[in-house]
Amino acid sequence: MIVEMKTGAPREDVDALVEKVKSFGWDVQMNIGTDKTVVAILGNNTGQVSTDIFAVLPGVETVTRIMKPYKLASREVKTDDSLVSVDGVEIGSKRVVVIAGPCAIESEEQLTQAAQAIQNSGARILRGGAFKPRTSPFSFQGLEEDGLRLLAQAKKQFGLPVDTEVVDPRDVDKVAAVADILQVGTRNMQNYTLLTAVGRTQRPVILKRGFASTVSEWLTAADYLLAEGNNQVILCERGIRTFETSTRFSVDIGAIPVIKKSSHLPVLVDPSHAAGHYSLVPAIAKAAIAAGADGLLIEVHPNPKEALVDGLQSLTLSDFDQLMGELKQIAKAIGRDI
Ligand code: PEP
Ligand code: MN
């Protein structure tokens, strides 16, 4: 931490600060300028103490942390890329992974048609929501247990690993009994009780970025999963809220290289929730691969016009098939494959 004293702060204020620092067993490095004194606090566990402890002292102007708030998700802790193995499908390798399927599981027929089609087009993991976190309590909340049952059936029938969201810590065991990947949605990125419960399952997890969260807050949330000894964490950029309204959310493509630099965890992009409209999904998906994403999470529906949730942003089976062909070329251009 770096403490900048106010211009002309008296010597007693600086001494009081130093004494406070020493009370934690830490050291200081003083930088005494003509008008200002800057004090660097040196210690290997300064992250455990709030900056407020020093900010409230008389004569202190600002206190700045130089250590990142996240640890286990950071590249400083683990320098090599993490690979997450989902029932044999590796995420984070040279091979880009596409996860696709309906937003919500609606019926056996809908899920089966989607699973068959996405598998034929080259997707390697099936997604489908059984518990849906809806903005309104009056909207369709998902088929819940019946949805999980259909998902388990599709997994068996097609031999595809499955990804589904868990919204409530009380449902974690029930969802984990079926899901190969537990998805934590954007609205729950900072639900720490849920993160801890999901972390304990030791099951692969997709942690979506909170739509109003910084990359740093996102990686700090990932620490909750990693702190439970669960190393199988996959991040997913799905767009953030900005002043722009022409897309549902603004996809932060820049977050991909930022994650690659700051973290060892694999990162996916969900172009569907970012776009909000099917016509925008292919371009965002291609940009994500070109920018270095390890995979995509795409909503696909056999009949988007009849979809109970997110029909406008869902690709038809044939549009998805065409997109997969185009993505192969993008992956090839950057030395990867799908
Ligand atoms: C989803 O993937 O269906 C979903 C609800 O996504 P998000 O949490 O990103 O809104
Ligand atoms: Mn959706």
Structure description:
It is built from 11 helices and 14 strands. The two termini are 44 Å apart. The chain is 33% helix and 18% strand. Helix 3 runs parallel beside helix 4 (145-158), helix 6 packs across helix 7 and helix 10 (281-290) packs parallel to helix 11. A hairpin with a 4-residue loop joins strand 2 (27-32) and strand 3. The chain has an 8-stranded parallel β-barrel with strand order 7-8-9-10-11-12-13-14, surrounded by 6 helices. A 4-stranded antiparallel sheet has the order 2-3-1-4. A two-stranded antiparallel sheet has the order 5-6. The mean pLDDT is 97. The protein has 338 residues and is an alpha/beta fold. The radius of gyration is 23 Å and the shape is elongated. Residues 103, 273, 299, 309-310 line the site of manganese (II) ion. Phosphoenolpyruvate binds at residues 103, 129, 133, 185-186, 208, 238, 270, 273.
Pairing-aware structural class of the strands and helices? alpha/beta
- Which spans of ≥5 residues are poorly predicted at pLDDT below 50? none
Distance between the termini: 44 Å
Order of helices and strands: EHEEHEEEEHEHEHEHEHEHEHHEH
